[in-house]
Amino acid sequence: MSGHSKWANIKHKKGKADALRGKITTKISREITIAVRMGGSDPTGNMKLKLALSKAKANNVPKENIQRAIAKGAGALEGSSFEEVTYEGYGPCGIAVMVTALTDNRNRTAADVRHVFTKHGGNLGGSGCVSYMFQQKGSFWIGAESGLSEDDLMLVALDAGAEDIKSDEEGFEILTEPANFDAVAKALEDAGIEAEDAEITMLPNTTTALSGEDAEKVQRLLDALEELDDVQDVYSNAELPEEEE
Fold first, then answer.
1. Contact status, residue 199 vs residue 230, Cβ threshold 8 Å
2. φ/ψ of residue 156, rounded to 5
């Protein structure tokens, strides 16, 4: 979630999903509803919905919750009107932080996010204060247990428009420009390659390595932001040691 090491983020995300199952289901359901309202209920031509449904599947969101969220987005059910908002700020040690949220009350969400920043030694900034430090990218994560090699993935992904493949002992991360996300997703699917995680994310241009107490302070801020009901994703340019993940 924090945007600096995908394979570490995946492990962190999966652990939080297990611990906060109900909250994760609520957040993903909101994401599905917003996606349907913005682009319709057919995932074929709605990338945001396709991503939300993929996330729902990965997190075992019950089918009835998914159907209810789609119906709400299509106007078949009464429900609150949510909108997407982005917050930017600084954490301890000057770490850049971006927060995306879905809210039906901007004032409440802004107050909650500001409170968490302040409580954990950071401060909420104005629009654009840190976004220039990040790039929006499509990201596909394929674990090492897939048995695939980097050459296998390069043959499929790069031909479809992927721009980079990163790897370590945990697996592979395929990066794309957002415009090429659908093409790479289709190429992987056609090749029978299943990504454990696929999303449009924000990646920092450069990272700041932290350790010890500084790393702990930043991790507490990121965790507290993620635990807010309205917050969907949290990104930072902090490079934290593995034990902090």
1. no
2. -85, -50
- Per the CB < 8 A criterion, the answer to whether 218 and 236 are in contact is yes
- At 19-39, the pLDDT tens digits run 556 678 888 888 888 888 888
Tell me the whole-structure pTM to 2 decimals: 0.77
CATH number, domain at 214? 3.30.70.980
Strand pairing partners for 136?
A: 202
Q: Which residue has the higher pLDDT, 5 or 165?
A: 165
What's the domain range around 33? Answer: 6-73
Alpha helices by DSSP H, listed for the chain, are: 6-19, 21-39, 47-58, 63-73, 106-119, 150-157, 181-190, 212-226
Torsions phi, psi of 172, nearest 5? -130, 145
| 189 closest CA partner among 38, 68, 34, 43 | 43
Q: How many domains does the chain have?
A: 3
pLDDT of residue 232: 86
